[in-house]
């Protein structure tokens, strides 16, 4: 049985390969005008990780948990993930 760390490394390696196999044009397609493309979803996951990291650190200094929200649609638009190179997003 794999350790948790080894399993995580396997999942990340396999996922990276599968994501890199998606062509650039395919990663830009939106299933509907009001839905995110694969590029925007990956970008959102980057934003979410960044926000959650701050939440975890800030919570360690507080007596009670307070999780500030963030305007995820605005973040995705401002970061311009749709026009970012697919490979760069995957590496990020």
DSSP summary, beta strand count: 0
Terminal CA distance: 29 Å
**Number of helical elements:** 5
Which structural class is indicated by helix and strand composition?
Answer: mainly alpha
What shape does the CA trace take? flat
Helix content, binned percent: 55-70%
Share in β-strands: under 5%
Sheet with the most strands?
none
| Rg over C-alpha atoms, rounded to the nearest angstrom | 16 Å
Q: SSE order in H/E notation?
A: HHHHH
Poorly predicted regions are none
In round numbers, the mean pLDDT is 92
Oligomer: single chain
In short:
Helix content is 62%, strand content 0%.
What are the main properties of this structure?
mainly alpha; 0% strand
Describe this protein's structure.
- The protein is mostly helical.
- 62% of the residues lie in helices and 0% in strands.
- Helix 3 packs across helix 4.
Summarize the SSE layout with pairings.
Layout lengths: L3 H17 L3 H4 L10 H22 L12 H8 L6 H6 L1
Helix pairs in contact: 3-4
């Amino acid at each position: 049985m794999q350790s948790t760390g080894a399993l995580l490394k396997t999942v990340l390696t396999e996922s990276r390969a599968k994501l890199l196999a998606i062509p650039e044009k395919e990663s830009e397609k939106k299933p509907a005008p009001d839905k995110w493309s694969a590029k925007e979803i990956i970008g959102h996951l980057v934003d979410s990780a960044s926000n959650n990291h701050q939440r975890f650190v800030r919570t360690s200094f507080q007596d009670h948990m307070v999780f500030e929200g963030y305007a995820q649609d605005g973040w995705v638009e401002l970061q311009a993930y749709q026009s970012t190179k697919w490979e760069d997003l995957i590496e990020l």
